[in-house]
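On clarity, I found the account of how folds are encoded harder to follow than it need be. An entry of this sort, consisting of the sequence and the corresponding C-alpha cells, reads as follows:
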Amino acid sequence: MAIPPQPMPEQEASVRAHNMNEVALGYSAEQAMKEASRCLACPGKPCMAGCPVAIDIPGFLAKAASGDFRGALETIRKTSLLPAVCGRVCPQEKQCQKSCTVGKMLKDVDKAVAIGRVERFVADWARSNGSEPEVVPAAPTGKKVAVIGSGPASITCAADCAKAGHEVTVFEAFHKCGGVLVYGIPEFRLPKAIVAHEIEGLKKLGVKIEPNFVVGRTRKLGDFLEKDGFDAVFVGTGAGLPKFMGIEGENLTGVFSANEYLTRANLMKAYDEGHADTPFWHGRRVAVLGGGNVAMDASRMALRLGAEKVYLVYRRSETEMPARKEEVHHAKEEGVEFLMLQNAKRVIGDADGKVCGLECLKYELGEPDASGRRSPVAIAGSEFVLDVDTVVVAVGNASNPLVPMTTEGLETNKRGNIVADPETCMTSIPGVFAGGDIVLGAATVILAMGEGRRAASGINRYLSRADA
C-alpha cells in the first residue's frame, strides 16, 4: 500500500496534438515491476470477475513483479490473444481495475493497480525481444470454419478454432484486417503495426486471410455451408452502420459520420497527404457531436489533421459522458474545447452547399432516464451559432446490416442485431454462429473478444457432435 501508483510517461500535449505518434509511451521495466508489485494477490481475485476473458490477473502480475515478463505473457495468452491491444484500449477502470482491492482501500479507482499498463508492457517487451510464446495447434480435425470479418471477436474466434485443429479462413471486406482496430481507433492510441503483428500471429496458426471479400455481395453467407464445404461459420461483422441525428443540414458538404472521418484518417492515412489512399476534407473549424470514445477520437484526430479549432458538443454534463476519463483528459490537454449541455439543432450551409455554421441549443439536466443518467432538457430560446466548416457526427453506431439483409432465415432483433444463443453463440441457422458488436451492439474490444472465445467454444462443441 506504500508503493505509489506509477504514472504513464506521455508525449507533451502541445507536441502530440500535431503528430500521429502514440500518446502514451509505455512503462519502463522498473516501472512495470513496481506497479505489478502493488497487487495484493487477493485469494478471491475480484479483478478477474471484471475481465470479460477471465485473465489470471494476480498470476500475471506476480510474474511481472519478479521480472519474469515472458511468463507473465504466457499467463495472459492462456485466455487473451491481444494483450498489446487490450492494454491500450480497454476501459480497465470500468472492468478489472474497478474491482481492485487496492483501489477500493484507497477509495480511488485511479489508484488501483494499473493492470492494463502492465499488460501492455509485457506484451510490448515480448514483441520487442522476440520472446513471445509459441502456440502449437492441435492435430487437424478435417473441419473447415469460415470467419466473417476480422475485428476483435473474429480474431479471437479464428485463433481458438485454429488452435483446436480446424482449417480456418477469415473473410474481410476491407483491404486490411483488424476491423475497428484499424479503421476506428487512431494511430496515436493504437499503432497499426501492433495490429498487423497480431494478424501475422493468426497466419502462423495456419489461418488464411481473404481481404476485399464482402460477404453478402461477393458471396452469400449460406453459400459457405451449402457450396463451399465449410462446416461452420462465425459472423463478426461489427457495428459499422453510423447513426445520424436527423437534423436539418446533415447532407451538406462537410458533414461526416465519425466512421467515415476516422476510416479515411486511420485505414487510408489521410494524415499523410503525400501518400494517402483517399482525398480528405481539411476542416479549419470542426464541431464533433457526441460524448463517447469515438467522439474523443474524432476530435483529437481533427487537431492532427490541421484544424485550428475543435469543439466537442455534448448535450449532458461531463459527469454523464460515457468516454473514458483518460481520453477526456487527453482531449482537453490537446486543446479540444468542450461545450457541455449543448446540442446541435441544425447545420447551416452556404450558397455552395458547404457547412458554414452549426446552430446549437443549450440544455439543462432533468430527472434520470432508463440509463441512470440525468436526461437533457432543452432551454427554450437559447439558440446560438458556432462558426464551423466541418461537422463530425459521433452519436453511436448500429450493427452492420448487410449479412442479415442478404441471409434468409437469419433472425435479428428490433435493433438489427443478430440473435444468438448466449451460451453457444449459435444463430437461428444451424452451423452459423455470431458474436461481438453484430450481436451486442457497439461495445468494447474486450467484450467482443469474450464473445469470440465463447463462439469458438460453441463451434468446437458443434463440430465434435457432428463427428459423433
Notes: The longest strand covers residues 355-368. The radius of gyration is 23 Å. The mean pLDDT is 94. The CA atoms of residues 140 and 245 lie 50 Å apart.
